[in-house]
Structure formats: structure tokens, C-alpha cells
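As a warm-up, study this chain.
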Amino acid sequence: QVQLAESGGGLVQAGDSLKLSCAGSGRSFSGYVITWFRQAPGKEREFVAAINWNKEFTNYADSVEGRFTVSRASADNVVYLQLDNLRPEDTAVYYCAVPNRRNYFPGRGPDEFDIWGQGTQVTVSS
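Now compare it with the structure written out below.
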């Protein structure tokens, strides 16, 4: 099965940008929906954005629409999350995740995802 590894987090100021990466190993991302979640301290894990690898269909949470962009680099088996105009409320650990089968279109609930990366911390100061 595919393994996931996130990178690119850091400490930035409000209004700054970051670009997160989710690298897949062990199996191609072809056929998967790769989804980004985030979890802030004391809060539940929440949906951020998703991309369907084959059709490049994308989907965003209302809170990040217009500020975050999800994309893919097929040659490298990597999915990116570009975070622009960051706000303090974007502070969280960001995870990428996939369901354990291809050609399955999950909803936004974390319970539908079986494979997770270790997460990368994003901290936005005001």
C-alpha cells in the first residue's frame, strides 16, 4: 500500500505563504483521492482540501477557499498544498490522507481515510 510523508510546515507571520508537500511511496497515487486535513490543539481533525489524482478535480473547505490551492506533480508522485494569506486560525498540524482503495471517492470525514502521514506543523503568528 502507499505510504505518505508530509513536509514544508513552519512558523510564519499572518499574510505569509507556505507550500506543503505530501509524498507518496510504495505505490502510485493513480486512482486515489488525496486529501488534506488539519488539527488544531483541542479541536477535531477537519477537512481542508482534496484532489482526485486522475481527473485533477479539487475540493476545498469554505474556510480556505480562495487562499489555499491543492495540486499534483504526477512525475514525482507528490501532492502540494499552497497556503497563501495565512491567518492565525490556520495554525494546526496538517496531514495528508488516502482511503485504502483506489477509485473510491470519500466524503470529508476523517473516518473514511485509512492511510495517514505523520503530519507537519504550521504556526501562524499575528
